[in-house]
Amino acid sequence: MWKQSIDPLGSLAVSAGVAVLPIVFLFWALAIKRMKGHWAALGALAIALLTAVIAFRMPVSLAVLSTAHGACFGLFPIGWIVFSAVMLHTIMERTGQFESLKHSIASLTSDKRIQAVLVAFSFGALIEACAGFGAPVAISAGILAGLGIPLLEAAELCLLANTAPVAFGAIGIPILTAASVSGIDQMAISQMVGRQLPLLSLIVPFYVVGIMSGLKGIRETWPTALIAGASFAIMQWWSSNYLGPTLPDILSALASMAAVGIWLAIRKKKEAAVAAEEAPEHGPLFAWSPFLIVCVLMIVWALPDVKALLDTITRKVPVFGLNNAIESITTGKLIAAVYTINLLSAAGTALFISCTITALSQGFSLRELSGVYLDTLVKLRYPLITVGALLGYAYLGNASGMTVTLGTFIAGTGSLFALFAPLLGWLGVFITGSDTSSNAIFGKLQAVTAEKVGINPVLTVASNASGGVAGKMVSPQSIAVATAATGLTGQEATLFRRTVKHSLILVSIVMVLTYLQSNVLSWMVPEVAAAHIAAKAEPNYFRGALVLACGIVTALAIAVMSRSKNRLD
């Protein structure tokens, strides 16, 4: 058994300076050297391994096993989601649904700035609500590229727009994780995040338009941007404060899409509509059916009874030689290292089934479908290396204590901790690519440090999630997904340079807001509440099977009603 050390070099500042070397390398490799994503990720991983073994005195075997554990998690379930999302895009191109989708969106408006707000912000949030882990960026970026927006700009816009829903993504998993780790009631954290993120939700649509066409574009499109952002922000605030952390993204995305759709339908001008001779051959159902199928199955997959049913064949495999071999310096407990193989209940499986239903309903043969699977795998070979290497580094950073050292150093800012607490969340998401993982790493540290310096821990734990959303767009993992979805593999450095300034601006806004909420705006912070542990209901497998069957039948019905007669005939 090996025990972690927060300060292995005898000075916290020096230890933190060494621990930050892999991150410094990533910034240098992507922003300055413009290195390809997989080489930058592999280089950061190599530096992290040397740092863990030499500076943090981690046994080589534990360092290698931690890296392998993370790399496996990068391939499944994260790589599985990315694979399925990119495959859906390919299938839609071959069925003609992508072309119909472009006409469907263009029938509302021909203004690409408004199209970007609708697709990247409103619709992307709905995908984030159901799946998370890169799926919204992969799907939305593909749509925008198909609408004629330059590839790099499409990827940049989707990474930026994906900030607003991240904290409540994947049916609220980041907030639930923060509550579990910190010991603070999940409703209190949900309420606090719901009093921070709506500001970003209101800003982001204007930001998207500003990137595309500057202040002139904002002046020309501000009513639509305001409607998209305000409807999202209001619903996000209300649902997070009164319903809890599981529904804000779904309700906010639907509210925003509906509000923008109604507004555009009311004010639609002749020049914004598709000319009669260019009208699509098929209706909106044909174009949007793949995403309707995705949403139906993703929501069904997330329901507790269905998840419990699908998890009956889940295997949890302890990592030999690593499980319970490391003592945490923060908790004093042994760290479990278990690899979960939940092939049926994984969100990527719901997405994969959606792809298969879409393809077969549009007349694909099994041979054609197999060809799409293989082509997608070849296309993603370098992004998957990038994701695997980055998750290997993230797991190594956690196991070696490097990440906790960095967090402890930032937590030492005393009375200014409220200002820097969101930066801790940003750092966690940059390293891991996940707001959930960032909350798992830093949630307890945020709570304990806040109590020491006299700040309400609800505020700092929530700000870890809120600040983390701004780190999503610069996480090399997210960038790898975006470049893969738009066919830009190898240009990760260019995309990083385009997004890093937006990330720093948005996290700065959250930092200032959090600092103000620690003093002059303290009335916005809910009272500290101990975590309420509800009695866990026994899963109802029969009900789960019934709901699962209904969800699949509904998806099949949508597919059958939307199928293209031309392709079948």
- Helices and strands, in order, run as EHHHHHHHHHHHHHHEEEHHHHHHHHHHH
| Order of neighbouring strands in the sheet with most strands | 1-3
Number of helices: 25
Residue share in helices?
over 70%
Question: Percent of residues in beta strands?
Answer: under 5%
Structural class: mainly alpha
Largest sheet: 2 strands, parallel
Shape: globular
Identify low-pLDDT runs: 270-277
Count of DSSP strands:
4
Radius of gyration, taken over Cα atoms and rounded to an integer in Å: 23 Å
Q: What is the residue-averaged pLDDT?
A: 85
Number of domains: 1
Distance, first to last CA: 66 Å
What this model shows, in words?
The protein has 569 residues and is mostly helical. The protein has one domain. The chain has helices at residues 12-19, 21-32, 37-55, 60-95, 97-108, 112-130, 135-146, 151-161, 169-182, 186-193, 197-242, 248-267, 284-302, 304-310, 347-361, 366-379, 381-400, 402-411, 417-432, 435-453, 457-471, 476-485, 492-517, 541-562, 565-568; strands at residues 2-3, 315-318, 326-327, 338-341. It has a two-stranded parallel sheet with strand order 1-3. The protein has a two-stranded antiparallel ribbon with strand order 2-4. Helix 8 packs parallel to helix 23 (492-517). The longest helix is centred in the middle third of the chain and has 46 residues, at 197-242. It is globular, with a radius of gyration of 23 Å. Mean pLDDT is 85; it is low at 270-277.
